[in-house]
């Protein structure tokens, strides 16, 4: 075995749905204002009794079932999140305990909105190096816990959820080389900080960076996989804002690809957004087994990470 692949994916969202009309009753906003600026219609909101590890465990269990595996088949658990309340035990250990995964390596990865693609690359590296045989890679965030519900510029953006992938060794690589990096001197543009922690961002700076600086980086991720953008069957970008997703996807040049637009119904779920949107495309049959799909995360720290994967 000299490669790794995604064997299966899964996702989970809380039952409660918050509409734009609901938000209009909470802050000075409207459905038209929100749709015209960010393209979001609804978002899912977890209750106080639904912690991050519960969201993550539901998504992971779905991915395991889809792969035909049991918790005992997993020896590495990676959870990408930036909304863990406690420092220890970490989310990965809590998810492993919920699922009954015996003695895995269990690590959290905090790269905010680019967390899942960083974690996926880490799992790929671990499997190809022989340090793991099968990994659960999960993106899960409860953004509503760190939201200022009086700030109409940010509270309209966020949602809660989780997405997961099972990564395993394979004869041929199904996960392309990662292209990752950051612009740390601009890290202040996306923040979750303070006591209590609150999400804030400099929207215009993030928009300009994402739509002007990231397209060539995403194209280079395709090149590292030996593909041209027009060869892609799917593009799953971090679901930040429809007004970022659409121009970024266009500038990448993936003219034949299905572009995930889950942000319209789920909002910005941070590290959960890519696996959540990817799993939905797979579930709906919009991309088929073996199809090349670009996963590209970006956001907090002004970090980015992308790779081309083969659809499970």
Automatic annotation (TrEMBL):
<keyword id="KW-0511">Multifunctional enzyme</keyword>
<keyword id="KW-0276">Fatty acid metabolism</keyword>
<keyword id="KW-0808">Transferase</keyword>
<feature type="active site">
    <location>
        <position position="268"/>
    </location>
</feature>
<keyword id="KW-0275">Fatty acid biosynthesis</keyword>
<feature type="region of interest" description="ACP-binding">
    <location>
        <begin position="239"/>
        <end position="243"/>
    </location>
</feature>
<dbReference type="InterPro" id="IPR004655">
    <property type="entry name" value="FabH"/>
</dbReference>
<dbReference type="InterPro" id="IPR013747">
    <property type="entry name" value="ACP_syn_III_C"/>
</dbReference>
<keyword id="KW-0012">Acyltransferase</keyword>
<comment type="similarity">
    <text>Belongs to the thiolase-like superfamily. FabH family.</text>
</comment>
<comment type="function">
    <text>Catalyzes the condensation reaction of fatty acid synthesis by the addition to an acyl acceptor of two carbons from malonyl-ACP. Catalyzes the first condensation reaction which initiates fatty acid synthesis and may therefore play a role in governing the total rate of fatty acid production. Possesses both acetoacetyl-ACP synthase and acetyl transacylase activities. Its substrate specificity determines the biosynthesis of branched-chain and/or straight-chain of fatty acids.</text>
</comment>
<keyword id="KW-0444">Lipid biosynthesis</keyword>
<comment type="subunit">
    <text>Homodimer.</text>
</comment>
<feature type="active site">
    <location>
        <position position="238"/>
    </location>
</feature>
<feature type="domain" description="Beta-ketoacyl-[acyl-carrier-protein] synthase III N-terminal">
    <location>
        <begin position="107"/>
        <end position="181"/>
    </location>
</feature>
<keyword id="KW-0443">Lipid metabolism</keyword>
<feature type="domain" description="Beta-ketoacyl-[acyl-carrier-protein] synthase III C-terminal">
    <location>
        <begin position="222"/>
        <end position="310"/>
    </location>
</feature>
<protein>
    <recommendedName>
        <fullName>Beta-ketoacyl-[acyl-carrier-protein] synthase III</fullName>
        <ecNumber>2.3.1.180</ecNumber>
    </recommendedName>
</protein>
<dbReference type="Pfam" id="PF08545">
    <property type="entry name" value="ACP_syn_III"/>
</dbReference>
<dbReference type="InterPro" id="IPR016039">
    <property type="entry name" value="Thiolase-like"/>
</dbReference>
<dbReference type="InterPro" id="IPR013751">
    <property type="entry name" value="ACP_syn_III_N"/>
</dbReference>
<feature type="active site">
    <location>
        <position position="113"/>
    </location>
</feature>
<keyword id="KW-0963">Cytoplasm</keyword>
<dbReference type="Pfam" id="PF08541">
    <property type="entry name" value="ACP_syn_III_C"/>
</dbReference>
<comment type="pathway">
    <text>Lipid metabolism; fatty acid biosynthesis.</text>
</comment>
